[in-house]
Amino acid sequence: MSDATRMSQLVTSRLMLKAIVAVCALLALVSAVLFQAPGLLGRDKAVTDFDAFYIAGTMAGQGRAAQSYRAAEMMAEQRAIDGKNNFMPWTYPPPYTLFMQGLARLPIGAAYLLFITLSFLLYLAVLRRIAGAYLPGVLIAIAPALLLTVRIGQNGFLTGGLVGWFLWAFIRQRAVAGVPLGLMVLKPHLAFGIALLALLGRRWKAMAIAAGIVVAALLAATASFGWGIWAAFLGGVREAGEFLAEGYYPLFRMTSVYAGVRAAGGSAPLALAFHAAGALAAAGFFLYGWWRGCETRFLAAIACVASLFISPYSYDYDLMIFGVALAFVLPDLVERARPHELAGMLLLSWLVTGYGLAMNVLNDVANSGIATLKSPSDFFSVSGILFLILVALAYMTLRRPLVSAQG
User: Fold this and answer.
1) How confident is the model at residue 50 (pLDDT cuts 50, 70, 90)?
2) Calpha distance 22→29 (Å, rounded)
3) Beta strands, E only, 30-142
4) What share of the chain is helix, strand, coil (3-state, %, to 5)?
5) Rounded (10°) angle between helices 94-103 and 204-225
6) pLDDT at site 151
């Protein structure tokens, strides 16, 4: 059996798919216990990302939604749980706070399990529609971020699922694409690519549906929390911008150009300038692909990648959107790349999606996702540059003509 045949069998292996899903399911069950009653597993309570979600939802249910956007108050709530100086400010839009208020009516273990299970199933369903038989290969390539997202209860599956759902419906010219586009109000900075695609494609019905969902979400949040929630939200965003400039966020967990320059010792203005240049380049590349009439599945992949370079605040769990891009192009990569090239890109993908987790382990906060007020010089932030290299290699590979024999 040739190396090419073995690689093809690996990326389409149903056994591998079942194994990955089983590991994620087991990890989710263990994590639910760690969120609810860690003592049952002989562990102390450690605040992670979903704890911050749950705290914000709980505060909202207590009529303190505006206070959740004040970092000092959020940190006090987090410290009350495990006695540590955790740093996870709340900067999500008020509609997401309203969503978490609903989830926080459940015990935290049940809320986490419901959230991560439904969002993971959405993500898997969307990837299956896009990648087909190559779904196992996609999951293998993003395995580190997959496990990280399950463990800390982040929303990467939700945003990745919504982006993928939009692109799947967009390619089929269905107005229902407006539903996931509108729901991205929960994390709008990751919707750049799909919003621009809808605009360039003149999908007016889809955009009207999206606009209606956004307006409804904003009105619902305003009705629940009052007009003052928006001033609190904007204040929280400004405060977060100051924290980012001062290097309080864990830059090694970020995948942006900004994080890479800042962690390397560059000033905040310099890092922002480099990031702006990178964001413009990503947007320009997407527009170039549209202008040249790029095949729709490739343009969809470019839209995903471009979205990940727009905001300086981009984390490893956001790379679930990269998984969507990969779902569109993996069959073409397998057809065009030699086995050793595929193996190299797989290793690079693991580095991109797993670097932040590895640094967390080295920082003695494995499986916690906590940011500990580290300075930008403590760890390098290399995920962004590695991601650029990976995208460049994939692009060059996809430009090749098909070859009849590879080895």
Assistant:
1) very high
2) 11
3) none
4) 75, 0, 25
5) 70
6) 94
